[in-house]
Amino acid sequence: MISVRFFPVLCLVLAAASYAHSWYKSPEKDGQPLAAPEPSPYGSLWPLPQEVQISPNAMFIPPAEFTIVHGEGSTAGADCLVLQDAFRRYFDYMFGLLRLKDAPKGLQSSGRLVQLQVTLTAKDNECHKYPSVLSDESYKLMVNGDAAVLEASQVWGALRGLETFSQLVYQDSTGAFLINKTQISDFPRFAHRGVLLDTSRHFLPLKVILKTLDAMAFNKMNVLHWHIVDDPSFPYQSETFPELSNMSADPHLITYHPLTHIYTFIDVRMVIEYARLRGIRVIPEFDTPGHTDSWGKGQKDLLTPCYKDGAPSGTFGPVNPIVNDTYAFMYKLFNEIGKVFPDKYVHLGGDEVNFSCWKSNPDITKFMAEHGFGTDYCKLESYYIQQILGIMSSLGKGYMVWQEVFDNHNQIKPDTIVEVWKGENYNEELYKVTAAGFSAILSAPWYLDYISYGQDWQRYYRIEPLNFNGTEEQKHLVIGGEACLWGEFVDASNLTPRLWY
Ligand SMILES: *[C@@H]1O[C@H](CO)[C@@H](O)[C@H](O)[C@H]1NC(C)=O
Fold first, then answer.
1. Which sign does the torsion angle of CA 488, 417, 130, 501 carry?
2. Are 282 and 275 in contact (CB under 8 A)?
3. Which of 184, 256, 349, 356 could form a disulfide with 233, with the two C-beta atoms 3.0–4.6 Å apart?
4. pLDDT tens for residues 44-95?
5. Residue range 17-39, pLDDT digits in tens
6. From the CA of 72, how far away is ligand 1's center (Å)?
7. H-helix or E-strand containing 481?
8. CA 472 to chain centre
9. What is the C-alpha to C-alpha distance for residues 62 and 66, in angstroms, rounded to an integer?
């Protein structure tokens, strides 16, 4: 089938599809799980919609006449920026380079399609809102007669339907545009279909992030998990604490610069709005108490001083959990973050906390004794996490955490989302997290930064996120998955091929 898009975009569509697919439509056929990827009988539709009927009747689309318009009775109109922008974008994807190419005269077809009418039915169609975990992404598409009809309750479903429509358009050997008469009814299997980008280990220029959002939209993925800061650098420019990005990086780290390699408020807003126009949420991650080396450079006394032979060694460990200044700082920082990022959720990290520095520090030892923690450093970690979770709740935000926060018996709010990332026994972990009543996101089998020989995309495709022993109720708590592209060996030069091939 010939490209409906210009070339680089087509590559993304074909490649990315592998793991997005099973999050959308169950990889089953006649009730049997697919043994191996099969070529779709529906041409280039990806991910495969829930219900598809394509007839062998093809219609010509004359691009010079074709329009995408608001349907009669739609609750959306010209002030719905999300749709206006999508109409323009999808027209360009389909016909941009060849818009004057009309059907050659005298060819056989079952008619001409000259319009796509997009109708939103919900009173609260969310045109002027941000997508959320509760957004309705369902839609119906009917391609039949002169005008095709796309119907969705909310604007997010219309975006998914426009993507599907664009995938149905193809060109024949003369270059004429065609679409078959088609009926589609679709909704995603999982509400959270994410990609994690890591901008601390290598800075990613804005345009690479925006390009990733485009590719996500082609695959109907809807969450950018922005792992924005970590040990190596703190590229988020905070208004409250500008020293964090000014000072954060190791001067020898050539992948970072405090003037050019940062995300300003404007940059962040641009990512969030670009994502919103594509129905994608942006969830920032500010990981603590570990993974915070870079924070310590711009915020004095935030990290725990490590000791050696009874004296401070000059090195630092995780965030210092025993001083009030830490929590005053965190309150101010998360208060800002909560306002800059509109999503209900912030990812608070909580993974891989190294206890050796805490163990070396006599003040920490004293604090542990006073609080009856004994020598159980998990209890100290829990104490810290508890304060941070309290701060987030007081700011009206929900939170996501890495699985250790659950594993170390923290008291977390019932609506916490636990991200299961450890490679071993992730099915067992999904069982435990959901048995305790928490929502879970699976990322363990999709660490795309691990490269291996051969076609590893097939392995990603075969993973079934609900393949753990658990009740139906437990399975409902698995709200989706994330493909993680950690940044140790990824920068602007190789991100796109590594993420989407
Ligand atoms: C679309 O219609 C053409 C022309 O009849 C037919 O050859 C093709 O198989 C149809 N495509 C699908 C996916 O049914």
1. positive
2. yes
3. 256
4. 799 999 999 999 999 999 998 999 999 999 999 999 999 999 999 999 999 9
5. 434 455 565 545 455 544 444 54
6. 30
7. strand 478-485
8. 25
9. 6
**Which amino acid type is present at position 264?**
T
The residue whose CA is least distant from atom 3 of ligand 1 is: 56
Q: Which of 270, 356, 362 is nearest to 312 (CA)?
A: 362
Structure tokens at 340: 């800059």
| Closest residue to atom 11 of ligand 1, CA basis | 56
CA atoms within 13 A on the CB side of 31: 0
Helix, strand, coil percent values for the chain (each to nearest 5): 35, 25, 45
First-to-last CA distance in the chain? Answer: 20
CA distance 414 to 404: 16
Angle, CA 418 vertex, CA 282 and CA 316 arms, to 5°: 85
Which residue's CA is the closest to the ligand 1 atom numbered 10? 56
CB 60 within 8 A of CB 82: no
Predicted TM-score (pTM) above 0.85: yes
How, if at all, do strands 398-402 and 345-349 pair? parallel
In the structure encoding, which two tokens stand for residue 106, read together?
Answer: 């005298």
b/e per residue 40-74 (b: at least 16 CB within 10 A): eebebbbbbbeebebeeebbbbbbeebebebbeeb
Which residues does ligand 1 sit against, CB inside 6 Å? Answer: 42-43, 54, 56, 58, 180
CA-to-CA dists, residue 145 to 70, 139, 370, angstroms: 17, 19, 77
